[in-house]
Each structure stands twice: as structure tokens, then as C-alpha cells.
Amino acid sequence: MQQSKDSFPLLDNRLYDLQKSAQVAWRESFRKGHKRICSEIPTGVGKTVTFTLFPKEGARVLVMVPSIDLVGQTAASIARFRDVQPETEWQQERWEPGGCNWCVASLHTLLSNDRYERMLGQFDLIIWDECHDCATERAAKMLDRFVVSGARVLGVSATCYRGNKKSLLGFFDDIAYAVSLKEAISDGYLVPLKCKTLQLKTIDTTCTRMSGGDFSPKELSRLMRDEVALHEMCNLYKERHVPGKPAMMFVASIAQAKDMIKILKDRYGIQASTVYTGMEKDDLNRWDEIRQFTDGDRELMITVGCLVQGWDHPPVSEVYICRVCGSLGRLTQMIGRCTRVLKGTIDASMSKDERLAAIASSDKPFARVYDMTDSTRNQKIRTCVDLLMEGHTQATIDAVKKKAEEEDIEDIDAAVEEEMRRAREEARMEEAERRRQRMGSVVGVTFEARDCDLFGDAEPKSRREWRFPFGKHTGKPLRLIEKGYLEWALREANLKPFWKQAIAEHLDRRYQQEKVRA
Fold first, then answer.
1. Is the pLDDT of residue 247 over 90?
2. How wide is the angle at C-alpha 416 spanned by C-alphas 413 and 418, nearest 5°?
3. pTM of this prediction?
4. φ, ψ for residue 209 (rounded to 5)?
């Protein structure tokens, strides 16, 4: 099918302000001479629409997606917004020169046997969706060859960073535009999140090896299949799930998924859909499982490494992360499955306040994330709180994470403000305590003004009197503290040399006085 003759304005009126800002930034970066740029836009904001409406009329565009699940979905979006039926390149379907100016291809298909080579020089723009995924040397080589043949590359992702901490700037010249998940929620483009982190006592990953920026899949499967842990996770879903609200559950392995499906069905009578690689061998049809979930016949989707990125089902209101996660990128993608606003709730004509009000009054005013970790024992764990609190101090993050283990956090920002307020008050009290100690140990030295005992029975007139620096006797004159306590402090407390000497001299005087009296 030929490209539609209808021209599109530079900034389409169907775009939100955020999407328009992204397009402006992309054009400016290309104008500066960059050939390969990337952009970070959170899941659910509409990055597919943004890049679909970006190319000018007549441009030849190749859209690369990371998995076969997204080929049809992306092609449908292009058909909807550009009024064309793009060709596809995946499995047995092949793009042919001279056809539609748009092609959607699976990245793995293009790399397989170098199928992309016949496309070199045939496209003006390469759009790499979910560009953080499969950012390998082979992918970089392919991009280089497209650029040499005259194309420019636009990478888009919700997470422009990789689990192995290698920057995507190794593949791209410029990060042209970026907006965080928190910013998108605050501006009314995504629904707010309510978070709960739970520590499963039966799972200990302290000795678990890392692989590719996350925990070893084989070892995770072994840990997460502990019988008690499986029942705890299934019981969590049964107790927390709100009937009528679609939910997704991310697990570590196919074996874990099968175990949980059996427990949910046998113990609670809950039928769940499931998607994983190679499920056809178990006589399960991938598309039937997805359809039963999206049609509402089942309210829970259990997935192993699938539907993590790019997959769109706005009604999803609950996410259960039933695996420990060391990759912030993967965690972001999982949480992104529930942040989408329901269709028809907001539109491009609304202001920020109008969007926020519309979301609050919709059938999906927020989404819930239940994040199961053992973060108190393993600092490599990344939780939903880490994601939503980027930019804060680690002490604040740790405090809010501890609170999230004890109760549901209705508002991350409010929890942060409460913790920061508590920290400020604690710092104020500590400073007051230090001031009081300084007054007692340095400035607040008192002088006695009593008569001198001519027989040496009392301390000389105007002898300096030190005040105890800490504990229950803080600020109390040494002479008023029982001798046994001072002896203990001298023997056991971690005193500075000055105080050891002061207390020792005071005790010596008391010992001498006792001998005189004796």
C-alpha cells in the first residue's frame, strides 16, 4: 500500500505537550549533526505514538522492535496514526523494496543471518524501540552500517540504561530528550503508584551470583520455588487482589510459574493466564492466554520474561513482582505495565491540573505494586521505592523502604517529605544535644564558691567542676554521680582521652577524701 498523501504538521495536535517536547528535541539534535540519538520516555506516556508521528511525509522508515510480540502491535499503531499498512520483517514475512515506506521488523530477525543487509540504503530513518534491549556489539555494527548507508537512528526506551551499567552512549551520540517516571506521574500523564514491599523470610540471596546485571536465572528459580515462599506469594495475591482489577505477576522461571498456577487453582480456585517462551510445548497457545486475560475471563497474568516491555493493556491496576530483581531497568519495565491511564481519561487539550483531576476521578485513580524482596539483607536488590526515589540520599531511601515493608505507601512524595522532616528534626535534636554537651564539657564549667575546709576535707575553693558528657547523666556534675557508675564508664565506655583523664582525676580525689575520712 502506498503512503497516504495527507501531510502531517510538525507538531500533530493529537500529541501531548510532553510528546511535542520530545519531537522538538529530536529534530534539534539531528539538526546539530548527530546521526544516532536516543530518548527516554516512560512506559505508558505514548512513545510509540510520538515516534510514529515524528517522520515527515514521504520518509522511508524502518521500526525495529525487540520481540515478535510487538511487531503486530507496532504495525497497528502505525496504521492507525499514519493511515498506512506497514510491511513487516519477522519469521517468514519479508519486506520488499518499492512497497510501503514503513516497515516494522523484529531486531532478532534482522540480525539472523544478517537479513538487514538487503535493507541498507533503503531507509532514511531507523527507529529502535526499546533500544536498551539487546544493545550488543552486533546491533551496534548493524546501526553503523545503516548510518554509513545514509540513515539516521532514533532510539527510544523507558529505561536508557543497562543492567551491566554500560552506557547506551556507546551506541548513541546524544540523549536528546529524557523524562522520568516520577515526572510523568506528577504531570498527570500516568497514574500514581501505591507501593508495598515485602520481605520473604524464606528467601536469602546474599550468596546468589549476578549475571548480566541481574541475579542468575537458574539460582533465582531454585530460591523462588521454595514451597513456603510459593504459598506466601499466592496468599499475598489472594489477600490483596481487588476483584475486577486485572493484575500481572512477574516470576523468575517457568517452573515457578507452573507451581504458582497449580497452587492458585487447587487452593484458591483462581484460574490464571500465563505467557513464557516455548509454551507451545506444553499445549498452551500464547495468543489464547493473552486474549482470555485482556477479555476479562481471567484477572491474573503470570509471565516469565514476556510482556515486560512494550505490551499495552491499560486496565492493569496491580503488579506483583514475585522475584527478586537486581536490574533497575527490568524493574522499571515491570512497574510500567500498570502505570498507563485508562483510554479516554485524558487528552491533548487538557492542562496538567485537568489531567490530574481526570485521573483521580477515573476508574483507575492509582495502581498498586507489591514488590517482594529481601532488601534488608542484600543491597543489590532494587525495589519499587528505589525507582520512585531516584535523586534522594541513600539514608532517605532506606528509611522509606523500611516503612514500605511495614505498611502500604499511599504517596511516595508524602513519605519522602515525612522522612526528610523526621530527619531534619532528628538532626536538630542531635545538634541541641551536641550543644548541651559542649556547654557541659567546655563552656559550661562551673566554679564552686564555698568555704575551704582547713583540714583538707573539702575541695579547694573555686575548683573546676566537670559535667558528665553523655547518657542518663548528661550535664550532671561528676560529684553528684555515684562512684560505681563513673568507674564503669572509665572501664567500659568509649571515652575520649580528655574525659578519661578528667574522670580518673575526679575519682582519685574521691578516693583520697574517703581515705582521709577513714
1. yes
2. 110
3. 0.62
4. -75, 155
Q: Which class for 290: exposed (0-12), middle (13-18), buried (19 or more C-beta within 10 A)? A: buried
Report, as an integer, the average pLDDT of 339-364. Answer: 92
Instruction: Count CB atoms within 10 A of the CB of residue 403.
Output: 16
Q: Which three cell numbers stand for residue 38?
A: 536516543
Residue showing cell 506469594: 233
Residues 55-99 have pLDDT tens digits of: 988 899 999 998 877 888 889 989 989 888 999 988 788 888 878
Do residues 157 and 130 touch, judged by C-beta distance below 8 A? yes
Residue indicated by cell numbers 506444553: 282
| Gap between the Cα atoms of 311 and 50, Å rounded | 16
Q: Report how far residue 309's alpha carbon sits from residue 130's, in angstroms, rounded to the nearest whole number.
A: 8
Confidence (pLDDT) at 428: 66
The pLDDT assigned to 374 comes to 45
Percentage of the chain beyond pLDDT 70 is 70
64 has which bridge partners? 105, 128
Q: What are phi and psi of 110, to 5 degrees?
A: -60, -40
What are the pLDDT digits (tens) for 411-453? 545 555 565 666 666 666 666 666 655 554 433 333 333 333 3
DSSP state of 466: -
In this structure, the number of other CB atoms found within 10 A of the CB of residue 213 comes to 16
Name 127's bridge partners.
Answer: 63, 154
Contacts of 365 (CB under 8 A, 6+ apart): 191, 192, 359
Indicate the SS3 state at residue 41.
coil
Q: What does the longest C-alpha to C-alpha distance in the chain come to?
A: 117
**Distance in angstroms (rounded) separating the CA atoms of residues 205 and 209:** 8
Q: What does the chain come to in residues?
A: 518
- Cα–Cα distance for residue pair 507/510, rounded to 1 Å: 5
Q: What per-residue confidence (pLDDT) applies to 337?
A: 85
pLDDT band at 251; cut points 50, 70, 90: confident
Between the CA of residue 332 and those of 84, 365, 370, what are the distances in Å? Answer: 32, 20, 13
Q: Can you read off the three cell numbers belonging to residue 126?
A: 531507523
Give the integer Cα–Cα distance in Å for 156 and 182.
18
Cα 75 to Cα 511: distance, rounded to the nearest angstrom: 92
If one compares 446 and 42, the residue with the highest pLDDT of the two is: 42
Q: 36 has which bridge partners?
A: 153
Instruction: Provide the b/e sequence for 187-202 (b: ≥16 CB within 10 Å).
Output: bbbbbbbbbbbbebee
